[in-house]
Amino acid sequence: MYIQKERTQRLRSKFGPRVWDRAIGEYGDRVHAESDLEKRAERVEQFNIRRLEPAEQARYAQRWQRKQALFVDDPRSVVNHADVLVQEVMDTPRLSGQHIRTECR
Predict the structure, then answer these.
(1) Is the CB of residue 90 less than 8 Å from the CB of residue 43?
(2) Helix %, strand %, coil % for the chain, to 5?
């Protein structure tokens, strides 16, 4: 019983309540949902991911803030541009963005 509670707390903390609750809803029970979340975590741990360099991080953050500032005036365009920006971040030479997008689902 203690081990199950610890597992639940660990996974809920790692993935956040929204992802954890969605997994429970998708699988219909805690055991299967937590098993899937653990498998996801194990796959992601195998990725060779590096942090963005501070200059890269600052550059992307600045671009993101500019997009946010324009959202109220032109949300459709900003969402399209933000999607491109996210793809650029995912495709930086840290790990193949496509690999991350397919493995984390």
Answers:
(1) no
(2) 80, 0, 20
Give pLDDT, residue 96.
45
Please report, rounded to a whole number, the percentage of residues in the chain having pLDDT higher than 70: 89
Among candidates 56, 53, 42, 51, which has minimal Cα distance to 11?
A: 42
Element (H, E) at 72: none
C-alpha to C-alpha distance for 91 and 89, rounded to whole angstroms? 5
> What CA–CA distance (Å, rounded) separates 16 from 24?
12
What is the C-alpha separation between 90 and 103, in angstroms, rounded?
A: 13
Question: What ranges do the domains of the chain cover?
Answer: 2-45, 54-103
Written as one letter, the residue type at 88 is E
Distance between CA atoms of residues 2 and 43, nearest Å = 26
pTM, whole model, 2 decimals? 0.53
